[in-house]
Design a protein that fits this description.
Elements lengths: L3 E4 L2 E4 L15 H14 L10 E6 L4 E5 L3 E5 L2 E3 L6 H6 L5 E2 L4 E9 L10 E4 L4 E6 L6 E6 L11 H12 L5 E11 L2 E3 L4 E2 L2 E3 L5 E2 L6 H12 L1
Parallel strand pairs: 6-15
Antiparallel strand pairs: 1-2, 3-4, 4-5, 7-13, 8-11, 8-12, 9-10, 10-11, 13-16, 14-15
Length: about 230
């Protein structure tokens, strides 16, 4: 729940709106993924988890793919929905021009020491460094953090120390964070595939386009790609 919303990087305090519910509610990505996975299960579509795509052979009437473990599959079409580093896109030789990142952000779910430092500044914060946000799923539960890093972070996996330093730079404290459930880094890199289709190979989602996450357009445009297909 957040009483500070944003539009075009402008902070809007909606706490005095003439309504019984002057706040915004968000559905976390893991909940969205669970709902979509349940829907796929209802369709009785075979799902192979924990596999990596090794090779793709494009034919006139079908596409043959090799998975890790030596398994081969044949399909009429292959849709690459495998992210910004898409193996499918690279195998098809489709270019991915655009702009390199200039800013990076950390997002995480962590535990917080209840008796260390000041009370967290809940909600969205916008300052000269960038946009940041703190929220709690439930009383006494894990804390969700999104913080802009002072300098562009490396491509390596972020650590708890990285998150602590970023929080201190913005809030003056790390609120005693510990025991992260997960930590991730994303950037403002912007790239778009030269083409979304090469014969029987198609692209969707981050494999076709990556951009700044403000507005949640990553997930939304990915869903629109699927509808268009």
């Amino acid at each position: 729940m957040a009483q500070i919303a944003g539009f075009s990087q402008i902070r809007l305090d909606i706490s005095d709106f003439p309504t019984r519910h002057p706040y915004g509610l968000a559905l976390w990505q893991n909940d969205i993924e669970r709902i979509l996975a349940d829907w796929v299960a209802e369709l009785a579509v075979p799902v192979y988890r924990g596999r990596e795509l090794r090779t793709i052979a494009l034919g006139d009437t079908a596409v043959d793919v090799e998975l890790s473990g030596g398994q081969f599959l044949r399909a009429e079409y292959v849709v690459g929905c495998d992210g910004g580093r898409s193996v499918v896109r690279k195998a098809a030789g489709i270019g991915f021009p655009g702009w390199d990142p200039t800013t990076s952000y950390l997002i995480a779910e962590v535990a917080m020491a209840a008796d260390k430092g000041p009370a967290p500044e809940w909600g969205i914060r916008h300052d000269a460094l960038g946009v940041h946000a703190l929220s709690m799923l439930e009383d006494g539960g894990p804390m969700r953090v999104m913080v802009t890093e002072r300098h562009l972070g490396p491509s390596s996996e972020p650590t708890l120390r990285d998150l602590s330093e970023a929080l201190i730079a913005v809030y003056g404290t790390d609120y005693g964070i510990h025991s992260p459930t997960w930590i991730s880094r994303f950037t403002d890199m912007a790239r778009q595939a030269d083409a979304y289709r090469d014969g029987r190979i198609l692209l969707a989602g981050d494999a076709a386009h990556v951009h700044h996450p403000v507005g949640g357009q990553g997930l939304n445009t990915g869903m629109q790609d699927a509808v268009n297909l």
